[in-house]
Every structure is written in C-alpha cells, then in structure tokens.
Amino acid sequence: MKIVIASDSFKSSASSLEVATSIAEGILTTIPECEIHTVAIGDGGEGTLDALLHSGFTPFEYKVTGPVGNHVTACIAIRDDVAIVEMAEASGLSQLPNKELAPLTATSFGTGELILKALNHGVRTIILAVGGTATTDGGAGALQALGAQLLTSNGTAIERGGAGLIDLATIDLTNLDSRIATTTFILASDVTNPLLGENGAAQIFAPQKGASAGDVQLLEKSLAHFSQVSGSTYANSPGAGAAGGMGFMAFSFLGAKQRSGIEMVLDLVNFKQLLTGTDLVITGEGKFDSQSLGGKAPMGVLAAATALDISTVMVCGQADISGATNFKKVYALTEIEGDIEKCIATPATLLVKIGQQIAKELLLN
Predict the structure, then answer these.
(1) Which of 21, 81, 146, 213 has the least CB density, counted as fewest CB within 10 Å?
(2) Is the pTM here over 0.85, yes or no?
(3) Is 306 helix (H, G, I), strand (E, B) or coil?
(4) What is the domain extent for residue 333?
(5) Cα separation of 165 and 221, whole Å?
C-alpha cells in the first residue's frame, strides 16, 4: 500500500513536515510494510519557503530591512533558475520588534531587497509568496528598494509605509533595476481582493495588522492616490490587494502574473508524479473551516488527488465545518484531546494516534 502525506503546517504548532512525519509514524506502527511518502507543502503564504526547502531548493540568508526599519535575517530559496521570495521573511508580522503592530508605517522595503538578492543569483523566474505581512504600503517599499524613486512635490523621498503614499507626487523609474524586464515574476496567491474599495487591501486586511477605523480610511486614500499617480490599470484586478497591495505593485511594475499558490507549490514538488500508484492521500491544516474551501493548501491537494480518483482524508487540529467536503473522512486532534491549547502545544502525540486510527480503518476495508 502506498500513502502520500501532504499537509500544510499547523500554524504556531507544527511545521508541514512535522505533521506529516507524526502521522506517518502512527501508520507504520500498525502497517509497518506501508510505503509512505511525506511532502512538505504550503499555499504560497507564510511557511511556503520552508516547505520548498525539502524539495531541492537551496536557502540563501541575508540581512535586510524589516517592516519598521529594523534589521532582520531573511532567506530566499533557489533551485536552478527559479527563486522563491517569501514576503513574510522580510516584511512579515513575525518580524515586528516585540510584536508591536505598525499599520501606517510598516514597509515592504526588505522584500524588494530580497528580490534584488535573487536577481544577483541570475535567476530567470521569481515567485513571490505573499501572506502574513505587516504592511499596507501597496508594495511601494519594495519598489523603492528596486531602484524607483517615489517623490513628494518637493522632490524628496516619501516616508516609508502606507501613510506616506498620501504625499506621493511623482514616480521616477529611471534607476529601476533593468534585470526586472527580463525576469518572469509570479504572484503565488489565492487572494482575489482588488486594491481598493470595501473588499480591498485597507478595508479587509489592514485591521488585521493593527489599523483603527481612522487608519483604514487614511490607508484607503493613500493607496488610491498611489494607484492614480502610478497611472496603473491594475487597481481593480483580482489579487491587486494581496499582501497589503503588493499584488498591485507586482502587476504594475514587475509585469507579474498571478497563480494559485498551492497549485504552484504542488508543481514545484512534482506532486502529480508522486501520486502514481498511490492508494490514499492524507492532507491537513491547523483549523479546517469555511475559509479552507477558498483555495487553501488542503483543497489543492484534494483536487489533484480527486483528478486521479484517489481517496483523500483530512487531518486537522480543529474542524469547524459541516456538510460535504469531498474528503473521505475528516480527523481532528480535538476529537482526541478536548483542550485546544494542549492540541496546539503538543500535537505530535495526537497526530501519531490519528495515524494509527487511519491505519486500523484501512485494514478493516
């Protein structure tokens, strides 16, 4: 029997590979002869880079600018002529000193620095994995790091951060890195929000980054002004609002194309080839709820397996969804341990037990 385990990470609890390894341990205690393949995956957001390091990508570490001008250590990953630049590495909420949110001033400048580092490696394709960012600056900081000058009416550089965009008068692309024109950029994201409006970057995502109602109004005006000065037609494009508007900058100035994050990752790990001869696929994520159905990693795994008529089960920390999901079965850690905090703190033992349960049920069928 061949089983493929491809789970997303359980956020703040266990990495993608740790989840898969624990489930595999449980299965092998019951079916020791079982052929198991564990695959680390992500959906294009935070943790994607870490997952791909288990699929032949090489990490390169750099000191870059953090979201509030602090110095942070961040990685990019490269395989052949493809680079993965994960925004959260440089501009993520996790990189805020003392976790103090800065909705008006957080900058994506460090992400632009990571793009430059990737270009220095001579790559031909750069995949921008976006998610978990502290920023709502429309990607303006990254654009500045790439050589563009964003100037006030006095000819001075605008302040970094979303609020600073309100003072933007001109964008000078004279010194924009020339290698951008010959590089393919892919925005790996399942976010379809536009830049502006009630479903835009400021209205939907900025409150999650600490923005008050007043901050949201200012950021909305700033992003609208940025769009107007840019002369870009991408403000209403699906995905323009991803990562605080980074999608807008990527479409407008990098010529980026958007692609489903999980589909991109599954291609990079050769998932379809791995499914040959597979009897069961196991996927998972920390919390399985209605948002999961909108393109998260497990749904991508399910779609790939279903296309080949392979049964798929879901393993999660907590299941908060009812109705048909097309999974053969859904297993939750909370079914074994009712205390959610314990599930988060010590998932490995519970995942082993679920692996054993899956194996026993397979033997009965």
Answers:
(1) 213
(2) yes
(3) helix
(4) 2-40+276-364
(5) 9
